[in-house]
Write a structure and sequence with these properties.
It is built from eight helices and nine strands. The chain is α/β, with parallel strands linked by helices. Helix 1 crosses helix 7. The N and C termini lie far apart (about 35 Å). The structure holds guanosine-5'-monophosphate (5GP).
């Protein structure tokens, strides 16, 4: 990669609302393009192949692993997710920065391969809000408790990221994300320490 090309990774705690924020960012800031990743999970209502994900079968995904087609891949809740080498290369070839919206295991592998990549964690405004957003998705008490524990565990795996942005208000969060991507503003893990404490 040349100096002008950048890889930025965005990960979020459950309930942080990352899809809305990232989609808004991509509309507002043409410098970035999101890598459309591959997954074996079922398509959700409204999702489109090659737009939200490349939806593939388990066999196809495993074939791609065997062909060394992925920069990183991870298994999340029994489904495979992976960033293809081609996906990143296509974006870089267009002269754009590649935005990877992936979970922490994949992010760790990206860090090994691209130590200069930028890592941004998106959190909901508070632990209470995280709990309320997770509960709002339904399920029984055991389910909800498990999902909250998992979200907390995930946040703990991302404390090494470069920056933290909070999604309280979508407009503000998009602005903050642009600032963070430009390395402006007070979003470093260190500067956001107190906020992070309430989650861990
Ligand atoms: P969902 O199934 O809700 O779309 O995504 C589940 C998780 O997988 C999210 O945290 C999402 O960011 C992450 N994810 C999506 N694509 C990839 C990928 O290619 N690699 C990794 N490691 N995680 C991904």
């Amino acid at each position: 990669m040349s100096k002008n090309e950048k890889i930025a990774v965005i990960s979020a705690a459950s309930g942080a609302g990352k899809t809305t924020v990232v989609n808004r960012l991509l509309k507002q800031d043409q410098r970035f393009s999101r890598v459309i990743t591959h997954t074996t999970r079922e398509k959700r209502p409204g999702e489109k192949n090659a737009v939200d994900y490349h939806f593939v079968s388990k066999d196809e995904f495993e074939q791609m692993i065997a062909q060394d087609a992925f920069v990183e891949w991870a298994k999340v809740y029994d489904n495979y997710y992976g960033t293809s080498k081609q996906g990143i290369a296509d974006i870089i070839a267009q002269g754009k920065h590649a935005l990877l919206v992936i979970e922490w295991q994949g992010a760790k592998n990206i860090k090994k391969l691209y130590p200069n990549a930028q890592f941004i964690l998106m959190l909901p405004p508070s632990m209470e809000e995280l709990k309320s957003r997770i509960s709002g998705r339904g399920g029984d008490v055991k389910d909800i408790t498990q999902r909250i524990e998992l979200a907390t565990h995930e946040i703990k795996q991302m404390l090494w990221y470069d920056q933290v942005i909070i999604n309280d208000d979508v407009d503000q969060c998009v602005k903050d994300l642009i600032l963070a991507l430009n390395d402006e503003g007070a979003f470093s893990m260190d500067q956001q320490k107190e906020r992070i404490q309430s989650f861990i």
